[in-house]
Automatic annotation (TrEMBL):
<protein>
    <submittedName>
        <fullName>Polysaccharide deacetylase</fullName>
    </submittedName>
</protein>
<dbReference type="GO" id="GO:0005975">
    <property type="term" value="P:carbohydrate metabolic process"/>
</dbReference>
<dbReference type="GO" id="GO:0016810">
    <property type="term" value="F:hydrolase activity, acting on carbon-nitrogen (but not peptide) bonds"/>
</dbReference>
<feature type="domain" description="NodB homology">
    <location>
        <begin position="39"/>
        <end position="220"/>
    </location>
</feature>
<dbReference type="InterPro" id="IPR002509">
    <property type="entry name" value="NODB_dom"/>
</dbReference>
<dbReference type="InterPro" id="IPR011330">
    <property type="entry name" value="Glyco_hydro/deAcase_b/a-brl"/>
</dbReference>
<dbReference type="Pfam" id="PF01522">
    <property type="entry name" value="Polysacc_deac_1"/>
</dbReference>
<dbReference type="InterPro" id="IPR050248">
    <property type="entry name" value="Polysacc_deacetylase_ArnD"/>
</dbReference>
Length: 227
């Protein structure tokens, strides 16, 4: 009995770790970073688009002539088509971050397909013609989601640099920048959440770009980074 419980516990822990892994997925292509010695990195922004925040981020990027990748939610694109079109018009890469931003590890195949299809449709409706990569909400995936992504030929993009602390700790833009500077390396994929009124991350985005530029880094989209 004790052994059975122990095995069940170990299995449970293993499954949980796998569902959260930034590096491995049971099937299909997952990219966390790219192995290169070139000083190139990809900035990726999750969630939204939300009004005001989108404009702020786009302005920071435009002023610095930086191209980035936005993983957007179908429901937010539906609510904010103008902001979606602005991102597309500026030439950035747009990815699928699900429709509802719910954890997708225990969804049925029908639910997963609807989340992906409806969001892809919003992305195409905005005029975007580039490749559509996927980033799972909360990084959560297990069996059904990777399986369906592989069936569609869709890549999962995770990250190796994420400075934000979501445990309630207040971070200044300078602290966020410093964590990026400490953890970045050539080929990194950097995750930031500047939508939903997160002005500290918006300010940090400018600081991160300026500091990394000084260190000789160039910014590319995920599609360019993985080419
Ligand atoms: Zn998200």
């Amino acid at each position: 009995m004790a052994i059975a419980l122990g095995v069940a516990l170990l299995l449970g822990v293993g499954v949980y770790k796998l569902s959260n892994s930034r590096r491995i997925q049971v099937v299909g292509e997952l990219i966390q970073r790219v192995a290169t010695t070139d000083k190139v990195v990809a900035l990726t922004f999750d969630d939204g688009p939300t009004p005001g925040d989108t404009e702020a981020v786009l302005q920071t990027l435009a002023e610095r002539k930086v191209m980035a990748t936005f993983f957007l939610c179908g429901a937010s694109m539906h609510d904010h088509p103008a902001q979606t079109k602005e991102i597309v018009a500026a030439g950035h890469q747009v990815g699928n971050h699900s429709w509802s931003h719910r954890r997708m590890w225990f969804m049925t195949p029908t639910e997963v397909r609807r989340e992906l299809d409806d969001t892809d449709e919003m992305i195409r409706d905005s005029g975007y013609q580039g490749r559509i990569d996927f980033r799972p909400p909360y990084g959560k995936k297990l069996l059904v989601l990777p399986w369906i992504l592989r069936e569609r030929g869709t890549r999962t993009i995770t990250w190796d640099v994420s400075p934000e602390d979501f445990s309630g700790v207040e971070q200044t833009p300078e602290q966020l920048r410093d964590i990026v500077l400490d953890t970045v390396r050539p080929g990194s994929i950097i995750l930031l959440h500047p939508m939903n009124g997160r002005t500290r991350t918006q300010e940090a985005t400018a600081l991160i770009i300026d500091s990394l530029t000084q260190e000789g880094y160039r910014f590319v989209t995920v599609a360019e980074l993985t080419n």
